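Entry for the shared binder. Reason: the reviewer on the internal report wants the predicted structure included alongside the sequence.
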Amino acid sequence: MLTSGDISKLVKGTLLGKKNIPISSIGSIDNAREDQLSFLFSRKKFNNILLSKASVVLISNDFFNEVSKSDKTLIFVDDVKHALSTVIKSHFLNTKTLLKEASSFKNLRHVNFGSNCYIGENVTFGSNCRIGNNVVIENNTSIGDNVEILHNVVIHNNVSISNNVKIDSGSIIGSEGFGNFLNQGKWNHIPHIGSVQIHDNVCVGSNCCIDRGTIDDTIIHNGVIIDNLVHIAHNVVIGENSAIAAKVGIAGSSIIGKRNMIGGMVGIVNHVTTTDDVIISATSTITRDIVEPGIYTGIYPAMLHQRWKRITLLLTKLDKIAKFLNLKKI
């Protein structure tokens, strides 16, 4: 059994607390269990350390003086992302996938398969499923009733697909997310051990990519409809009955509210949250949380970033400037 002391030695960290705590897996700071290792990437989640159920937390040396008197077992390191990546690669990464032709599975004859389909181990299907040609479904995937998966779709390990779901041709579900960090001037990747959950009555268009979560799952809730050529990154959560038009990109760990309507070519940066009943106009860029329902539009030409920040600040204060100058309200 892996212990807190083992992890501290592996990542060359400084252990503060108990060295014999058993660790079974990894969890995010908000969702970890008592037998899990967690981590803190940014100060934004700093106060969550004391509330977390995680037995052990990887944390930056920068925070040592602030939490040195905490009762929780902490492992201090120079680079938390590098340390987390090291632990995952050493103890929690399982990429083995054994695929067989679907026709060789006698217990799957109730599923209507096209030609040249390959299925991994421990894959389950509900009733009335239709699978197109050249489909790959990897290990430990569960598929509900009345699911239609069209040609050339790839579904990676540990994906959960509920009932009445349609996935159109060429889409990839559960691919590795774009979680990278710089270490000594070189890019390194954090292996993703989360998965994807697709709930009931979801429609995914052609050539979409829905990445699996880094630790927590990427979740598509009931009734969501997704157009073609959409990218949903790791750890994203899409609220019920939202609609996403073509060429939208939603970056990692964003949370989209219920009944959102997102126009074509919208870009949403990482860690953004939108409330329920939001409409985002086509080609808009969303860089911060949306906390009130309504229609939002944001389109800027490219310019030097510092100039863009100054102009944005002025735009948000135009009504006050107009009032100050006794102009008509904008």
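Summary line for the report: The mean pLDDT is 92.
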